[in-house]
Design a protein that fits this description.
By secondary structure, this protein is mostly helical. Helix 1 runs antiparallel to helix 2, helix 1 packs parallel to helix 3 and helix 2 packs antiparallel against helix 3. It is built from four helices and no strands. The termini are far apart. It is globular, with a radius of gyration of 15 Å.
Length: 77
């Protein structure tokens, strides 16, 4: 039987794992030059309760996608 603490820990890991997979999916889309699709995935990722390095990676990939799409002003923002 799973204890309440173990269940809580598992519950807390699931959103983080899903966010990691989404960031990975966005990276894959970017690598395959599907910039609009990658940007859509990145824009759906929440920034709350996320490590600073993950937020930075999301912001960097968002800027890379915007630059690739010729949306320089948005990328600089």
């Amino acid at each position: 039987m799973i204890s309440a603490a173990a269940l809580l820990a598992l519950t807390m890991l699931v959103p983080d794992q899903a966010a990691q997979e989404s960031l990975s999916a966005a990276r894959d889309l970017y690598a395959s030059a599907a910039y609009e699709d990658a940007l859509s995935v990145l824009n759906r990722l929440p920034n709350n309760n996320r490590a600073a390095d993950e937020v930075r990676a999301i912001d960097q990939y968002r800027a890379f996608c915007l630059l690739a799409l010729g949306r320089t002003a948005e990328a600089e923002h």
